[in-house]
Design brief:
The protein is mainly beta and 195 residues long. It has one helix at residues 27-48, and strands at residues 49-52, 55-58, 63-64, 83-84, 102-107, 110-119, 122-128, 133-136, 139-143, 154-155, 160-167, 173-180, 188-194. The protein starts with 26 loop residues before the first helix and ends with a strand.
Amino acid sequence: MTEQQGPDSNEPASEAYEPASPGMPRWVPVLIGTVLVALAALAVYTGMRYRENGTIAEHVKPRRTRAVAGNAPQGEPGAGGSLIMPDQTPNANEPVAGQSRAVITGGPAGVEATVRIWARRGMLLEVQPPESMVYVNEMLIGHANQFDTDDEIYDFAEPGSYNVKIVAPSGATKTFIVTAADDAKQDVARIAARL
């Protein structure tokens, strides 16, 4: 058996020459880039808006306010530094007196229970549905899921009582009175509600 020789050398040819495969058409990367830019724009648009009852509604965009002088644990924003609407903090009411934990009011038209809770600095919400709106002293502070972890506690700006109203998308409401006081037994009031 004789070995084949390369055309210009005395060495044997080990592999046959294979032509390079044709590259990707130039329009394919342009199309992929266009689709990615469109998806990014859609993600930004849907991040700023959400659908409610089949219509597009403006999403509440909370932001951190500057902290008011006060005591807060290290690493936490100062009092009043929770996620709330621009440069506004709810004013505290006079502290609620008494030992009652719940007040039941109403009559033939319906009964409403208001739960009283005491805490030293803030509240944590465990609410179903999580997209329920939260009002403190009739001021909208955002959705319940904004204050549902230990890292996202709503801090009260000053000592006193605060009326906390939680309103579900269905219209159901629950009311709580949270009294912020230095002598409270717990640091954070945990509010659990299913609407």
